[in-house]
Amino acid sequence: MLTIADIQFESRLFSGTGKFCSSKIMLAAIEAGGSQLVTLAMKRLDLTAKRDDILTPLLASGVKLLPNTAGARNAHEAVMVAQLARDVLGTSWIKLEIHPDPKYLLPDPIETLKAAQQLCDKGFVVLPYVHADPVLCRRLEEVGCAAVMPLGSPIGSNQGLATQTFLKIIIEQAKVPVIIDAGIGAPSQAMQAMEMGADAVLVNTAIASSRDPVMMARSFAIAVKAGRDAYQAGLGGVSEHASHTSPQTPLTEFLE
Amino acid sequence: MSFVDYLQALPTERLKLAQYSATSADVERALSSCEGSLSGLMALLSPAAEPYLESMAQRAAQLTRQRFGATIGMYLPLYLSNLCANECDYCGFSMGNKLKRKRLNLEELRQEIAIIKRRGFDSLLLVSGEHETKVGIDYFVSMLPEVKRHFSFVAMEVQPLSEDGYRCLVSHGLDAVMLYQETYNPQVYRQHHTRGNKQDFAYRLASAERIARAGVDKIGLGVLFGLDDWRFDALLMGHHLHYLEHQHWRSRYSISLPRLRPCTGGVQPKVALSDKGLVQIICAFRLFNPQLEISLSTREPAALRDHLYRLGITHISAGSSTEPGGYAHPQTQLDQFEIADNRSVEQVVDALKAQGLTPVWKDWEAGWINQSP
Q1: Could you tell me if B184 and B240 are in contact, meaning their C-beta atoms sit under 8 angstroms apart?
Q2: Which tens digits make up the pLDDT trace of B280-319?
Q3: I need a surface site. Which of A27, A90, A97, A181 has the fewest CB within 10 A?
């Protein structure tokens, strides 16, 4: 069971709420995928209307909400959005995302660390979305983040685990859960992330933009489960030492 | 949680049993991917790995070359004092041993430094017996600036100090601290350390964490092999290393692998570590941790040392004296332990070069460190 800040999750597939053609399909997909944590952008909520077509059905469904700060371009804005989320939604959980770059939506490491520090100090459960930067992840862990969310490839790109080498280092070093976020475009990629030892994956575009989001969500759920099982069962090592049987210069002959 | 708690919570009996029942399949798995894996390290240190020693050595040599190149870092110990307020039955400096006790003064320190500099060294290891009142922080602070004027990299191997003590020494130029636990078995530890502050197993064990928090760049761990079952002691040192790397990732780590050798009034090893066992430890740690620095002192004989460089050793001493004032006035005091490799620095360097290895004398720029903006 995955635990983040004392909350346990049976499913290691986290979902998003953007890009769906209707809130009905969104809900059906979340249900089919079994996600227990879904993120939603505070900027998308219509807080003046009585009903919001994303929030109202989500609240009714009972999944845990992870509001995010998408749209914030610096630490100051992100902290404001987080405080708004806490006031409106009554949750101190926040997915911290700060991307000043409108083209690739890549996260700003400096502003993210700054905002994470402030939010942790204010008692938020902070899950920062970051580049697959092992040192940054350690720094975020040090300021008190509950998990780290490094990206596999640019958000929405479906390119999979382009940052694999660095994700492996992050997973090896992390003392908090590692959730691979962004870029996962196919169930096989989600499975690969889980086989590597990721604690969870967050998938949105690949599900929401598929022809059949409900069926795709179900496929991701199976893949995530299979990948996690394989990781726990222990994958066999890739052999690199077969050629050592007849070395040119023996190194231990002197012992005989 | 400190490593003291970690070790206490470790099911050591079960772990020991697991190590001795490791199979060749476990070893083969570890050979293909052991990096960062404590179960892999356990297999590689187990009796089951002995038939795989050549494969381990080939892989260790390749990893060492890939990470460190064809280089060996050169350092020299400078003994500041043989005063000691501990009774440790394996050590020549033990307080019960009758020998002339000496603490270098500034003038004597300068004489030693001049000789060591002439031999080309720029990396120094300051060593002393453990005598808190006469060879404590005040003495170190009074000597460090003179040392730091002549050496880029200064390590210390002295009694464990407080976190503030380490921080103070860092501000005076200290770069590294070597502090060996001797054994990770508290019962065995108690048997061998019968008087003095060193009896405090837990304080010594928690030292590496204080050193790391004080911002020391490099931390050296070590076991005195022979005090207890070497396979298991080495594995627990691996746990310690693993723990430290995760908790204190800004520090570099090194290990030393001293074997119990005869000394004045000393003890015989309980479980002697053979040359083959020493090779197994070096290779296992290299496969477990490719970036780990491994030092080799002149306790080991020349012929063996020359074979070990390529297997994973990264730092060596040469032409060492293990008595205070021993460079300027050889053979006046009793040594801490016997030196087995008596070759001069030139001879050792020639042996390195004959193997295609380059000695590295300077690997640090002291001026860059501790320059607060």
Answers
A1: yes
A2: 999 999 999 999 999 999 989 999 999 999 999 999 999 9
A3: A90
Going from N- to C-terminal start, the domains of chain B cover 3-362
Cβ pair B183, B233 in contact under 8 A: yes
Pairing state between β B193-195 and B87-88: antiparallel
Angle at the Cα of B106 from the Cα atoms of B103 and B109, rounded to 5 degrees: 75
Q: Rounded to a whole number, what is the distance in Å from the CA of A241 to chain B's nearest CA?
A: 7
Burial A187-217 (b: 16+ CB within 10 A, else e): bebbbbbbbbbbbbbbbbbbbbbbeebbebb
Is B44 a residue whose pLDDT tops 50? yes
Q: pLDDT band at residue A247, thresholds of 50, 70 and 90?
A: low
Residue ranges of domains in chain A: 12-232
Q: Has domain A12-232 been given CATH number 3.20.20.70? A: yes
Q: How many CB pairs under 8 A join A and B?
A: 46
Decide the pairing of beta strands B123-128 and A37-41: unpaired
| Given the residues A43, A50, A64, A95, the one annotated as active site | A95
B50, closest residue in chain A (CA to CA) = A252
CB contact under 8 A, A255 and B275: yes
A95 given a catalytic annotation: yes
Question: Into which CATH architecture does domain B3-362 fall?
Answer: Alpha-Beta Barrel (3.20)
Mutation target to probe the B interface, by most B beta carbons within 10 A, among A175, A241, A248 is A241
Of B258, B316, B259, B255, whose CA–CA distance to B289 is shortest? B255
Burial of B193 (0-12, 13-18, 19+ CB in 10 A): buried
What is the tens place of the pLDDT at every residue in A131-152? 999 999 999 999 999 999 999 9
Report the chain A residue with the minimal C-alpha distance to residue B277. Answer: A255
User: What tokens does A132 get?
Assistant: 């697959």
The per-residue pLDDT for B111 is 95
Instruction: Name the DSSP class of B47.
Output: G
